[in-house]
Amino acid sequence: MWGHEIRAMASTHAIIAASVFMATVLPAALVRGFSVYGTHLLWLYSVSGAVTAVSVAVFWLLGITPPTKKHTVGYKLSRLFRSCLYFFLSCLFFHTVVVLYGAPMIESALETFSLAVLLTSLTTLRCLCVHGPNVQAWIRVFSRHGAMSVWDTCLQITVACTLVGAWVGAFPIPLDWDRPWQVWPVSCSLGSTIGFLTGLVAAPAWIHYHRKHLTYKCK
Amino acid sequence: MKRLRVLWLLLWMCALYAVGIYLFVGGFLLVRLEVNRTSTCGDVLQPGEEPKDFCRVRPRFRRAVLLIVDALKIDFAWFDPNNAAPRAYENKLPVLEETVSSRPAHSRLYPFRADPPTTTMQRIKGFTTGSLPTFVDVGNNFASTAILEDNLIHQFGQVGKRVVFMGDDTWENLFPKKFHRSLPFPSFNVKDLHTVDNGILQHLYTTMVGDDWDVLVAHFLGVDHCGHRFGPDHPAMADKLTQMDGVIRSVMDRLQNDTLLVVMGDHGMTDTGDHGGESQKETDAAIFLYSPSPLFSAPPSQSEPDVVPQTDLVPTLALLLGVPIPYSSVGQVLLPVFPPHGQTEDAVGGLTQLEALWINAKQVNRFLETYSGMAKDIPAESLSQLKAEFSRLSSEYLATVRQGRPPSPQLAASLQAYLTSVRDTCRATWARFSPLKMAAGLAILAFACLTCFVLSELSLALIREDGPGLRAPVVAALMAGVCAAVGQLSARGYVEVAWCLAAAALSSELLFLWRARRFGTAAAEMNGPRASWLTPRRLLAPPLLVPLLRCASLLSDSYVIAEGRVVTFLVFSLALYIPIRLNWDGLLLPPSHDPLKAAGLLPSPALSPSTVRKESGTLLACLGLLVGSLYLSLSFHACREEQGTCQPSPFLSPLSRLQDNRLKNLHYVLSVLALGLWTYLLRRCLRHYGNLNSASGTVFAARWVLLLLSVCLALYWAVSATPEDSFRNLAELIGLAQLALPRVAFCLLGLGLSLIWLDPLTVFAKTRAAASARSASLPPPCYRASTGISPQAELHHLIPQIYQRMRRSLDDGEASGGVEADGRPAVEAYGLGTVYSAPLLLFCGLLGMGLLLLHPEAMALSFLLLLLEMGALLHIHASSTTLSGLHATCPGGFNVPWTPVVLWSLAATQFFHATGHLPTFPSIQWGAAFVGFPDGHTGTVLPASLVTLNTFASHILFSAGCPLLLFWPLVCEVRGSRAGRACGEEGEDAAMEMRLRENPQQFSSALLQLSTRYLFVLGAQVFASVCAAAILRRHLMVWKVFAPKLMFEASGFLVSSASLLIGVTLVLRVDVAVSRWFKRLIPDASR
């Protein structure tokens, strides 16, 4: 029934996953001494930058974003501004949550904030792309009957996978193995990235297998 | 309601858990009493007329060098010249073999067998006291790790030998201030191979050349750390052993003729480099004896021992160096180093073999007599056998000495046999795990968890008559216990209580489970198939996933070390799950305007949008409060020694220890503020629900005892914080106040708690038409469960909740018509809506203050956080219940879901850490025993209970307050939620907690379910830590992390279950009082 949409979604996800892959490989070729553990922040920002750029571009090209009501330049500018503001606020929100979870408050604030940026670019950015700067709509999407389209279901799955990945990523930190990936925030950012990639794969697959049971209300 | 039934079921459940814990701990933790006597030089051990002073005799050796190479396994010490390709640890100590073969009269190398547990501290205790240390050596002083039993170091000091120590700093903790000179180096970092060894080497040779020592102890750690880090088969081990080879050579070069050298390992290691367990690889170390003067009278022969037990070092060294054998040594002298009879002339001043054996046997017998007088854990018949054997030997020996004839070789052999059998008896008692008991304990605990789970699922059926009752399991338990006792009596002649208990517990559990299963299938046949309990989907749902993770975390030492943070993390995760779940179900936000709904096609929502918004707001605000107190509670944690960089919380030290006056004042003001807020919040809550109006005992306690108690506490803190030298004139007064104030507080606490117990009702009944209500023809009384008594309060409060006592079934139409005509209820009862929760709340509040008294002052802040978190959890639970409409769907569905129960029990553990406690023995706050008793105690019961109360304060508070989870949704219920709902006739008029009274059966079942769920979560944690101790009993950290954790978890469970029972009993007591109150009001409607 939605073969077309699922195909579009799968290819979008393939592009995004490729961008994560390139963001890991390209700097290794360009920057000397680059490694995921050693220069972790660089890797982190390159991944979140790549994901941000590619998602915005792909979703804009596909036209998933709900059509704006007005077409004036001022309105578009204010939308853009609000999106940026929400992006930043979401970074702060994630930062707070991570600190409340027990991350060091002062010592590695930069690392914590970088993790927040990564989480934002993997989760909030997608919400922005799909629903625009509308927090009410975001909250409503994450309920059992809140999904209005295939893309909403996909949003639910990827966001949940990413957050669960980051949560599970915190588990190895107290262990006394002395591995480089146990350093804060490497395991969490790796966990969230792996969770995100899993979500990218799982979402189209899940939707494909459940396409008989999925029904959406009209918008 | 079936009060006794609930209580009996809970008691039975707790007893099952306790039996399981008792059995496991009995098999795992071996307890030995410490004998606090010391041997002296005057002990008459030699037969003869004049008691000659043992220490005056010139000893065989004047000095000794003890080189302890930690984890020097016997395999490391052998040398095999034919081995062409030695592994990293083979053939690296050639010096031992060279010396043994070139100078056989001077040296010997033996395997040296340690007793489990093969950990360094236990081993040092072992080869200095000569006894078999168990995990718990019950001594006088639990707080310090210092050895109080008689030991070699002590004996050396007694005769004036100067003991110089260098190396592993464990010794410094075990023998504080016992050394003439001490050079300890930090042993904690297992990754550091060289610090300790290099530190020793810097000082060893210079010390040896000097003349400022008699006994030199050097403890090298490099080999052990190398094993832990790389394993034995690693080039680093080769380097380390080669270094040790050089050390032994240089030490031997510097020895003088009157000096004995002992090179020994304290334990071995497994192939992975670990130790702690009981396998032969771990227990077999090496011992190498050497002296420049001839040490052995005969060359190595067949009579040499194959293996030297570690305990044997103590008597041997003591007799060689001329000190008395430590009192509680059970070792046996190493015979080859003593000359046989008739050769004493050439060995100067030495004892013969027989003399040494006799002294040894006499000392061992003396110890055995003392010990069997103190403790009963050595089996009686083996004890009497040993005694008979000793008296036979002693008469034979004395006869030999008196007649002056050469002793028969049989005598020496039988003395040796006697010593060996004593040691074997002691070892069987103290130093062996009992796997059978451990397995039985594990099985009982596992079945107890399962039973608890089944009990919580079947609670409703159990309360009804037709469910599986308790009588059959109890009868089965009794019968099985008696059978086990009879079987033991006939088979072995004596009864061990543990096995009777095990049989009883197991049989009653199995019978109950079988009956429950049969009952369950019968119910399924009647009602159709129901959802299975343990599907993977249910297990992975966060409310059960979180306790599962928590239990799994108990199996890893890193997580146990970081337990405080781990639990906080889990509580936070589960708390965040609640709003996410509600949002997923679409209940968090008011439903949007849907055309379908507006058209009436869908049923209209149960709650109005404004109510939803308000409840969601409460939920989120309380979540914020919860998260805030979780985060702040992290700053009250103490530090384990394993946590390297951790800084203990500054609030943990008592005020009197703070030097800075401004800081002291700040802490004091903060503590008093927290205390005031605690009091205010409690009173505020009680007043809000109208519970402060009547003249009962509980109200008195709430009004005055609470206040007086807090004043008492604040004064006591002020007094105990004053520096001793500041008010000289008032010293006596201060001393008196330090004694009196806490005792007054204890008395007030006792008064308050007993008042609550005796008179728990907080209801104030106001009769409107007193005269007319009495007459029978008038309408039956109706009353309000309202809040305040003043008209103002009446205005302020919710609509007065009218509660019609008469149920419709009792009422006739005429009577109800009368009420409507009258329009006003005849009796107004204030505080009836919170009649159950108010006494419980007050009980917890008072108890919390009493427990706070036992803590350092600044912990008041942490206790305030505890109260706030409790409140936040209760409100979150209430709001989410309202939002999800659990109460709206059916009347009397009071069941508390898993999520709040899990949160509640995790919060108990979280505040265990946040009140500055840790599951380790050194971190127990012993100061609590001296609150109100500054001069110490005479008994042990009172200080032990004070310390227990201090340690498990948060467990006690949370368990006693557990029934609040049942009441709070009712207390906070929204009137509108039930409006227009036809849930049954009788639920209509009952309000708040009176709904519980209206449905006594559901009340009982919900109470039972809540308690069993709580017990299940706690019991699962105990089970997990028991599993950890059983599975990881060879782990490096077992005596440092897992065994203490098990002890704390188990005792925490016992304390929690006891206080849970107290809380439930209080609720039932209130119920009795409420029934009596109603009976008095309406005699004809008694139930």
Automatic annotation (TrEMBL), chain A:
One Pfam family linked to the record: PIG-F
One GO CC term, this protein: endoplasmic reticulum membrane
Membrane-crossing segments per the record: 12-30, 42-63, 84-103, 109-129, 150-171, 183-207
Keyword tags: Endoplasmic reticulum, GPI-anchor biosynthesis, Membrane, Transmembrane, Transmembrane helix
Membrane topology: Multi-pass membrane protein
Compartment(s) where it occurs, according to its Swiss-Prot or TrEMBL record: Endoplasmic reticulum membrane
Chief location bin: endoplasmic reticulum
Annotated pathway: Glycolipid biosynthesis; glycosylphosphatidylinositol-anchor biosynthesis
One BP term from GO: GPI anchor biosynthetic process
Protein name (record): Phosphatidylinositol-glycan biosynthesis class F protein
Provenance organism: Zoarces viviparus
UniProtKB/TrEMBL annotation, chain B:
GO molecular function: mannose-ethanolamine phosphotransferase activity
PANTHER family: GPI ETHANOLAMINE PHOSPHATE TRANSFERASE 3, PHOSPHATIDYLINOSITOL GLYCAN
Entry GO CC: endoplasmic reticulum membrane
Protein's UniProt name: GPI ethanolamine phosphate transferase 3, catalytic subunit
InterPro entries noted in UniProt: Alkaline_phosphatase_core_sf, Phosphodiest/P_Trfase, PIG-O_N, PIGO/GPI13
Segments crossing the lipid bilayer: 7-31, 438-463, 470-490, 496-514, 559-580, 617-634, 665-681, 701-719, 740-758, 835-854, 861-878, 952-971, 1014-1032, 1052-1070
Record keywords: Endoplasmic reticulum, Glycoprotein, GPI-anchor biosynthesis, Membrane, Transferase, Transmembrane, Transmembrane helix
UniProt xrefs under Gene3D superfamilies: Alkaline Phosphatase, subunit A
Membrane topology: Multi-pass membrane protein
Subcellular location: Endoplasmic reticulum membrane
Species this chain originates from: Zoarces viviparus
